[in-house]
Design a protein that fits this description.
It comes from Enterococcus viikkiensis. The protein is of the alpha+beta class and 329 residues long. The chain is 36% helix and 27% strand. The chain binds ligand 2P0.
Length: 329
Amino acid sequence: MFSGKARAYTNIALIKYWGKENQELIIPMNNSLSLTLDAFYTETTVIFSEELTEDRFYLDNQLQDPKATLNVSRFLDLVRQKADCSLYATVKSQNFVPTAAGLASSASGLAALAGAASAALNLALSPAELSRLARRGSGSACRSIYGGFAEWQKGTSDETSYAVEVPSNGFEDELSMLFVVVNDAQKDISSRDGMQRTVETSAFYDGWLQTVPQDLQKAKQAIAERNFAALGEVTEASALKMHGTTLAANPPFTYWSAESMLAMNLVRQIRTAGIPCYFTMDAGPNVKILVERKNEAMVQAALAEHFAPQQLILAHAGPKIEILSKEDA
Ligand code: 2P0
């Protein structure tokens, strides 16, 4: 029996990942840059055992159906192959999120699975190797190997596509991210399907790709110079451009709801009133607001006039992946 346990925190991209060059290996079309957060994380235990005849996957103490288990098994196959191991495993994953409002993240989940499975089989991976492995489960997971800011360098192959830490001198500790959890009745389009449809059909996709390198440069310079306004401006611009591509896809779609737009408009109003804050959005209607820690209470109070307290969740920069235990028996 070989077991490992890991905890990984979710991350939110400031410069977005949107589109794959290689679906199978999850090589992205563009570099992305994220902030790892403390408020949402996943703890996963993987136990490889001679006694099992198939993989089993428990999420939040519930045994999962064959489809969800197959995704985990496919990922474990990569780890088994690396370790030359043919044992099946029990995987127990627990998502720690403040509400059940659809905030469970594939980034923290797949990073924790990669960390736990590789620790169990004694793979002793470097951060870059662990990032490469996590990437095979879910693109954004490759950034959750690191605390603070991380850049996923797209590379050109399985070997060269992984995330690295972005030096920041602790700038991330001056930042907060306020999640505005928006309930949405619309049917979801997964990020995987959404980005593929956009790459294949959006008239705006080339425009998206053209400006990513300069946006990334601006973000890295803003981090190095501790320039909050510059980082916020490029963060908001990257999100708007990403979401713009979906409007020109065929068939067109959007992740925005009326409440998302309300939140975005409030951010603009608060900014006009003199408090710097900026929004970003991912493959769903929730809005995330980047604000300096010193101003977080003011922004939260302004949003609380329109959203219920349980819809507002405050997060700060989070740590890198942690291997909590490992055991051979
Ligand atoms: C990001 N998103 O950079 C972007 C912005 C959503 C919008 O990464 O297909 O779950 O597993 O690689 O990583 C969410 O997509 O997609 C995501 P796969 P993933 O955070």
